[in-house]
Amino acid sequence: MSRNPFAPAASVSAALASRRSVRAFLDRKPDPQLLRSLLELAARSPSGGNLQPWRIVVLGGEVLDQFRATMMQRLATSPAPDAPQYPVYPASLDEPYRSSRFRVGEMLYTLLGIPRDSKAQRLQWFANNYRFFGAPVGLFCYVDRGMGSAQWSDLGMYLQSLMLLLREHGLDSCPQECWSVYHTVVDGFVDAPANHLLFCGMAIGYADPHAAANQLQSERMALAEFAQFRGI
Ligand SMILES: Cc1cc2nc3c(=O)[nH]c(=O)nc-3n(C[C@H](O)[C@H](O)[C@H](O)COP(=O)(O)O)c2cc1C
């Protein structure tokens, strides 16, 4: 008898509840074959018209070391960001979004012991982004330039699926839009086709459970603030 495809799945809940953005990693490499299988399974994510618009590049080992060196060189010699290809945030971030963004930053920097007025220390810590927070694997997510906002939302579905699958295997991640600010470095290194646009990166590895940054449990709005139920 074939397995019932509509039987309840074992537990997405545990993966979802335990996912958080991890910003410090152990010096332990994930199995490359496992990573391949998770990237493949994540592609079961839905996409409008089944376009599957995600285009992924994964770096590890010596290639990732070379990439980090290339990025460090750029930051050292020409730290000004590239012309943006898309706005990471709206030009004017109104409430409640503005406070939410501010709050998570404050929580992180409090955990790190970096005072509010120490902009230099904050910037210095932020620069860890550009080393993939020391993760053994770095991923980039591209999309065809012809795709619109609907397809960009499909990218999010793919990336979230991947992050949950990583959790199922004891791995963690941090999605990183910060890479979009230096897209020319990434594009050049991975030899991205001209019609591909970099959406974000993702650090992947085993979380350092003791790192201060990894203690951050970001807050969420109450259900009633973002959802309405009518007739239910
Ligand atoms: C598309 C995307 C881009 C992000 N970019 C960055 C980034 O560049 N650097 C970073 O430290 N965190 C980044 N984050 C992580 C968010 O700050 C984080 O998801 C949010 O604060 C909620 O916290 P949580 O992921 O721990 O639940 C990004 C998240 C998403 C979804």
Brief rundown of the structure:
The protein is α+β, with helices and mostly antiparallel strands and 232 residues long. Helix content is 39%, strand content 12%. It has helices spanning 12-18, 32-42, 61-77, 97-112, 119-126, 149-168, 183-190, 223-226; strands spanning 55-60, 137-144, 172-176, 196-205.
Any key phrases for this structure?
232 residues, NADH Oxidase, four-stranded antiparallel beta sheet, 8 helices, 4 strands
Kindly describe this structure.
The protein has 232 residues and is an alpha+beta fold. Helices cover 39% and strands 12% of the residues. It is built from 8 helices and 4 strands, in the order H-H-E-H-H-H-E-H-E-H-E-H. Helix 1 crosses helix 6 and helix 2 crosses helix 6. The two termini are 37 Å apart. The model has no long low-confidence stretch (mean pLDDT 96). The structure holds flavin mononucleotide. The site of flavin mononucleotide has 12 residues, from strand 3.
User: Which ligands accompany this protein?
Assistant: flavin mononucleotide
* Uncertain runs: none
Query: What would CATH call the homologous superfamily of the domain at 18-81 and 132-217?
Result: NADH Oxidase
Helix content: 25-40%
Number of helical stretches of at least 4 residues: 8
Order of strands across the main sheet? 1-2-4-3
The CATH architecture of the domain at 18-81 and 132-217 is 3-Layer(aba) Sandwich
Q: Note the beta-strand portion.
A: 5-15%
CATH class of the domain at 18-81 and 132-217: Alpha Beta
Average of the residue pLDDT scores: 96
Order of helices and strands: HHEHHHEHEHEH
Please report the distance between the alpha carbons of the first and last residues.
Answer: 37 Å
User: Which structural class fits the helix and strand makeup?
Assistant: alpha+beta
Approximate shape = globular
**Could you give a short account of the major beta sheet?**
4 strands, antiparallel
Give the C-alpha Rg.
Answer: 19 Å
CATH topology group of the domain at 18-81 and 132-217: NADH Oxidase
